[in-house]
Amino acid sequence: MLLGCIADDFTGASDLANTLAKNGMSTIQFVAVPAASDPEVACEAAVVALKTRSIALDQAVQKSLEALHWLQAQGCEQFLFKYCSTFDSTPEGNIGPVAEALSEALDAKAAVVCPVFPETGRTLYQGHLFVKDRLLNESGMERHPVNPMTDPDIRRWLRRQRRGEVGLIPYQIVRNGAAAVASALRDEELAGRRLAVVDAVTNDDLRAIGAAAAPCKLVTGGSGIAVGLPDNFRAAGKIGAANERFAGAVLSGSCSPAPRAQLAEYLRAHPGFVVDPDALLSGRTTVESARRFVSANVGEAEPDAVRKAQETFGRERLAHAIESFFGEVARADRRRRRSLGDRRRRNVRGGRDRAWPRLPDDRPRNRSWSSHAGEPNQSRQAASSRAKGQEFRRRRFLRQGSAHVGGAMMERELRERIVFWGRSLFARNYTAGSSGNISVRCGDGFLSTPTNSCLGFLEVDKPSKLDAEWKHVSGDQPTKELPLHRAFYEGRPKIQAVVHLHCMPIRLRQTPATYRAAGAPHRHRLIGHT
Asked: Domain boundary residue among 407, 440, 464?
């Protein structure tokens, strides 16, 4: 392990693990500190989810130190204390005392304090925490029933919680880049301030802070602070490139309606392998026959087929056979992924289904995925549980989740590739002026070039973002050729991108039926898709 993370609650730990995974680190989330007798695990980042946000201060410190000691024993080189991006705590603790205890245990001279998560509107300026366009104490958090946040000044809040002085690295320094932040951190260390609040407004700020924190033993903050940390290990040659991607794996053993609907939605764009109970018990279906499909998904047969097999072979025998089969498939997949440097797998479990694999050497843990980044985690427990339950029942849960975990390229990389290929096509005279347009699948939606834009002069932040229903979400207005692009995606669900050009030198071929059905003018012709 390289990066050891301690989170003060489970939801925040999931967001952190998701952030690390999206930025290229193989990540495992643990529920509580693993026991000494548990088998060793192989990963680059470990996130230990505790429940220390609102418990007694001495217990919070003790549990956090236990997690630290376990992570140290795993060989971690750097440590991250993750807390809520709204800094949920009281004037007595627990964030300040836990951060101080971890700092002293590690002999960390200066640690970043940055409860920032731009994706959810949490930003920090002059040491004051904002939730979108409101100061923290005007955002509704001042009425939090457990941890009311009545002061947006994070330095002042920390001074109430700890013994020493708290430093500040303002935005005027942060915007000058990593070298300026690193110099300011050294100044804080020389001044004897163990904790330094660091302003940040965007992910680029967080990347600069992450680069500056490379030599720091301890970093503290919200999930966003993890955006820049993987690059440090990558620069040192300790992890692979951020754009290394491997096919995701879905193992579904549920006969419940919601997971089956999710699987059906997922199968619209992915191949699959159905486990027929009769074929399994008769030996016609083997682990070897399923291995070539494990990069996509392995699912159980229709409920009626399962019920019939239960009557024929007996419930216990069938359950044992399916559990063993799924376990062997998962083990084979894990061995393959480790050989490739990838450890992602997605499991789907129905509420009362018995045929579910639990590997003997697997402690229950979350394999670094999330529902939506920034899902509210400061709400009451019951409301949070309901929200989680509703999120997990979404039809597109598997399809969207596989993209978040790494089955698809990150949005930033996709935008960069649109710009690269747009300029390349323009330079080779395949398009001129504002003609031509490009679109690409992105997570649970799409990116497209803007209307009236020249492919030779695109900018990374200009492509339009659209949701799964093709509604404009952000960026400039999308190309007017969207009906053409949509027809291709809906007619050929496996394609990932469409490049539409107006170039006479290229030999044209007849427009497909799906294109004509979309109502596109006859003068257009298809020249290529991917």
From this structure: 407
pLDDT in tens, 41-79: 778 999 999 999 989 999 999 999 999 999 999 999 999
- What's the predicted TM-score (pTM) here? 0.55
CA distance 243 to 253: 31
**Helix H or strand E segment including 210:** helix 203-212
Distance (Å) of CA 225 to CA 50, 210, 378, 474: 19, 7, 19, 24
**DSSP states of 459-494:** -TT-SEEE-TT--EEESSPBPTTHHHHHHHHHHSTT
Host domain of residue 467: 411-517
Longest dimension (CA), the chain: 76
DSSP-assigned letters across all residues of 143-172: G-SSS-----BHHHHHHHH-SS-EEEE-HH
Helix (H) or strand (E) holding 48: strand 45-49
Asked if the bond preceding 377 is cis, omega within 30° of 0, the reply is no
DSSP state of 408: S
Q: Are 198 and 174 in contact (CB under 8 A)?
A: yes
Token pair 């935008």 in the structure block, residue: 415
516 secondary structure, DSSP code: H
Residue 328 has pLDDT above 60, yes or no: yes
Tell me the C-alpha distance between 507 and 497, whole Å: 20
pLDDT per position as a tens digit, 348-374: 433 333 332 333 333 333 333 333 333
Type of residue at 516: R
The side-by-side arrangement of strands in the sheet containing 297-300 is 273-275, 297-300, 250-252, 346-348
3-state secondary structure of 297: strand
Q: How far is CA 205 from CA 41, 131, 225, 243, 408, in A?
A: 33, 17, 9, 21, 25
Task: CATH number of the domain at 296, please.
Answer: 3.40.980
Are the C-beta atoms of residues 327 and 350 closer than 8 Å to each other? no
d(CA 476, CA 101): 48
CA distance 492 to 152: 51
Token pair of 517 as six digits = 């059905």
CATH classification of the domain holding 154: 3.40.50.10840
- Rounded-to-integer distance, Cα 472 and Cα 464, Å: 7
Measured from the Cβ of residue 207, the count of other Cβ atoms closer than 10 Å reads 18
3-state SS, residue 197 = strand
In DSSP terms, which residues pair with 23 in a beta bridge?
A: none
CB-based contact 211:307 (threshold 8 Å)? no
* Angle at which helices 203-212 and 178-190 cross, to 10°: 50
Q: How far apart are CA 379 and CA 145, in angstroms?
A: 9
Cα torsion angle, 368, 465, 412, 209, sign: negative
> Torsions phi, psi of 466, nearest 5?
-125, 150
* Number of compact structural domains in the chain: 3
Do residues 44 and 26 lie in contact, with contact meaning Cβ atoms separated by under 8 Å?
Answer: yes
